[in-house]
Design a protein that fits this description.
A hairpin with a 3-residue loop joins strand 11 (302-311) and strand 12 (315-324). Strands 5-6-4-7-8-9 form a six-stranded mixed sheet, sandwiched between helices. It has a six-stranded antiparallel β-barrel with strand order 11-12-17-15-14-18. It has 624 residues and is an alpha+beta fold. Bound molecules: guanosine-5'-diphosphate. Guanosine-5'-diphosphate (GDP) binds at residues 134, 136-142, 182, 234-235, 237-238, 270-272.
Length: 624
């Protein structure tokens, strides 16, 4: 069946929002709230507000009683309390009833934890912060352990080291900070949360194995973050090691070794035998020198949460990485939307610190709640100010989580192109085979409408994974799936992150859709709505009928008119119509989740145990 243009659930979400708005707009015509008479209205005709304003704050701004607003919203079917954060439509509704013009303004400068108070005259060199990435089993963990063991500051050897998520080593009297969670997933998860921590990425490639899928991913993730790369060609102690081959493969991917005239330094290491470790560390320092990493240690400490947990005895415990300024014991601090005081601060060796400057990882206790990895933190001089800010941020977080949509949909894209805001469209391509990924990439890259073009940040073969979703989220990209289908879990993750996935099985359809979107001509005609999923548990071959699949409906439902995609290991191997649908011996019109049934696919018999069937219906999308 030819696939039609579709849109995913984000489109639907948008419609809902609009419907919601319409309801409120109807209320505009109502002259006033028909409740008990209010005291004489104060002389306020306009207000400004920021995201996450609460009923109490709105009452204060409008000069009304909170109880009035609560009653008014109750009459509109909304249950709120004085501390409920209100969305824009609700603020508008309340204001219209009071004849007040509301204007939304950006979050107050002091409400963000982003700190830009560095003074040029105070800037000092700071240690580089390094993440180690690469394919599984190429030696990331071993490398991190070896570096740590060989370079712990004198006197620490044999001491008790704690895993706090990051550590520092010293070489030639200079420090390097390593993030202790290897892999690009953690790196990109951080970036998806808006944190940029890593200065340099070390990509580990086993010399006996060469470039593997996660090596490519790591390169793309580092490039997307614009972080310089150092390559550790590892396991050179192995007889099968072929470092030149690794260099060639990396060069083919655009990572050109310095010794061949490129700008990436390749270091030969054996993490296991401790070979090349000093060389690697010195290289990291060289790259750091080029980047001129500096920070101003002379103000309140600010930075990012590396990890956090709830400890039974100590309460919330967070590993923080100070990025600028100096954090001091006793400082009032806002971490994400948590508040606290730095009650105790320790380094990775369990030593208590009184203060911690730029690039220092520390474990902190004294917070009122557990923040999330990737949250920003900032110390304050004034406790009251910090507490109030944390409070506002907490409410805003609740509000924005309710209607999160950070990545871009095709429709947003069209709007942004029209307004000239967007010149480059980042996309991620996942396809059934590398050849198709390349083909889709090439044809996408050729698209150019006006001065808008496509930037393919990642294109590989394989199913859409969580790591793709995170990369898309972090890079505000959308994902183009070619002959692949995300499973229910991935779809949910994408929806949560607001990442749009567009699925195609004909290249020109994919490019045509993109081109139309670039021209602002996007008019989706149909959307495929997934209605259910089943697992194939048995297969029976019956002459004249073909293969009958004994299935368990694992999600949603199937109907006898459904279209079906047959999926094997995340790849769509057939897309067609259902043949027959039976419960026991009888024809069934629909079978729901949790029930077994038998089915055939029209004109298709290669069904195997373990395959997934995804059922969908094409529904017309009303033109907005
Ligand atoms: P990771 O999955 O990338 O973290 O890889 P690991 O650090 O767990 O290493 C995978 C395997 O490779 C382990 O058995 C290590 O002992 C081994 N290994 C790591 N580095 C080297 C090396 O330089 N030489 C040799 N011969 N083996 C290594």
């Amino acid at each position: 069946m030819p696939q039609k243009q579709k849109r995913n659930s984000n489109g639907a979400k948008k419609n809902n929002n609009n419907a919601h708005k319409k309801n409120f707009n109807n209320n505009r015509n109502r002259s006033n709230f028909e409740g008990p008479r209010k005291p004489a209205a104060p002389d306020i005709h306009a207000i400004t507000y920021t995201e996450g304003i609460t009923v109490g704050e709105l009452a204060e701004k409008t000069g009304r009683q909170s109880s009035d607003i609560i009653k008014m919203l109750f009459m509109e079917g909304k249950m709120v309390t004085i501390n409920t954060a209100l969305d824009d439509d609700t603020v508008e509704l309340v204001c219209i009833n009071y004849d007040i013009e509301p204007t939304k303004v950006k979050e107050r400068e002091e409400d963000t934890l982003v700190f830009d108070g560095d003074k040029p005259e105070n800037m000092m060199e700071r240690p580089p912060i390094v993440t180690i990435m690469g394919h599984v089993d190429h030696g990331k963990t071993t490398l991190l352990d070896t570096i740590r063991k060989s370079k712990v500051a004198a006197g620490e050897a044999g001491g008790i080291t704690q895993a706090i998520g990051a550590y520092q080593v010293e070489i030639d009297g200079r420090k390097i900070t390593f993030l202790d969670t290897p892999g690009h997933e953690a790196f990109t998860a951080m970036r998806a949360r808006g944190a940029s921590v890593t200065d340099i990425a070390v990509i580990v490639v086993a010399a006996d194995d060469g470039v593997m899928p996660q090596t490519r991913e790591a390169i793309d993730h580092a490039k997307a973050a614009k972080v310089p790369i150092v390559v550790a060609v590892n396991k050179i102690d192995k007889p099968a090691a072929n470092p030149d081959h690794v260099m060639q493969e990396m060069a083919d991917l655009g990572i050109m070794p310095e010794e061949w005239g490129g700008d990436t330094i390749f270091v030969r290491t054996s993490a296991k035998k401790g070979i090349g470790i000093d060389d690697l560390l010195e290289t990291i320092l060289t790259v750091a020198d080029v980047k001129e990493l500096k920070a101003d240690p002379d103000h309140v400490g600010t930075g990012t949460v590396i990890e956090a947990k709830l400890d039974k005895g100590r309460g919330p415990v967070a590993t923080l990485l100070v990025q600028t300024g100096t954090l001091k014991q006793g400082d009032p601090i806002v971490v994400g939307s948590c508040f606290g005081r730095v009650r105790k601060m320790t380094d990775e060796n369990g030593h208590e610190l009184k203060k911690a400057g730029p690039s220092t990882p520390i474990e902190v206790i004294g917070l009122n709640d557990v923040p999330e990895a990737g949250d920003l933190f900032r110390a304050f001089e004034n406790e009251k100010e910090a507490r109030a800010l944390a409070d506002r941020r907490r409410r805003r977080k609740i509000e924005s989580e309710r209607r999160k949509s950070s990545a871009m949909t095709l429709e947003d894209m069209s709007e942004k192109i029209e307004s000239g805001e967007l010149k480059e469209i980042p996309i991620i391509i996942k396809a059934d085979v590398q050849g198709s990924a390349e083909a889709v990439k090439t044809s996408m890259e050729k698209l150019e409408v006006g001065d808008v073009h496509i930037n393919v940040i990642h294109a590989t073969a394989g199913a859409i994974t969580e790591s793709d979703i995170m990369l898309a989220d972090a890079s505000h990209a959308m994902i183009i799936g070619f002959n692949v289908r995300p499973d229910a879990n991935i779809r949910k993750k994408a929806e949560e992150a607001g990442v749009e996935i567009r699925l195609h099985n004909i290249i020109y359809k994919a490019t045509e859709e993109m081109e139309n979107a670039m021209k602002g001509l996007l008019e989706p005609v149909y959307e495929d709505v997934t209605i259910g999923e089943a697992e194939v548990r048995e297969t029976y071959k019956v002459s004249k009928v073909g293969t009958i699949a004994g299935c368990m409906i694992t999600d949603g439902k199937v109907t006898n008119t459904s279209s079906v995609r047959l999926i094997r290991e995340g790849i769509v191997i057939y897309d067609g119509k259902l043949g027959s649908l039976k419960r026991f011996k009888d024809d069934a019109r629909e079978v729901l989740k949790g029930f077994e049934c038998g089915m055939t696919i029209q004109n298709y018999n290669d069904i195997k145990i373990g395959d997934t069937m995804e059922f969908y219906e094409a529904r017309e999308v009303p033109v907005e």
